[in-house]
Amino acid sequence: MAKHHVSALINGNPVEYLCDAQQTLLEVLRDELNLTGTKEGCATGDCGACSVTIDGRLVCSCLTLGAEIDGKAVQTIEGMATGTELHPLQTKFLELAALQCGICTPGMLVAAKALLERNPDPTEDEVRYWLAGNLCRCTGYNKIIEAVLAAAGEMRKG
Hints:
By secondary structure, the protein is of the alpha+beta class. It contains five helices and five strands. Strand 3 and strand 4 form a beta hairpin.
């Protein structure tokens, strides 16, 4: 079976790899590029644990083929912090205990970041709607929503 040559920007870094036609972006990120922050929760696009952005659009990497990102820019959880400085969302998730097992956390953070890039002042309902595709089996959602709203407020000040 022929492999596809892919050139893309992942977290701002140029990356090239070979992948099989049926290999998902999630598999490429984790198995080929050793970016293991993106998690597999369901492999059917129902849980959001594998959320990444492609050219600024939030997608499930388990439903995206690795060959589809040729020439595109992908952002994963690994690209969220700047060096050792956490993104305000990451800080608020820690401060407000908006995580437990960690499976959903990377996808929640990527999705919340995508929301705040589009709408820096969301209402609670807007945050709940935006994160509806991301399932958490541990914390419930109140602390997650509180963390996103708190980070949004902090980001608007800064």
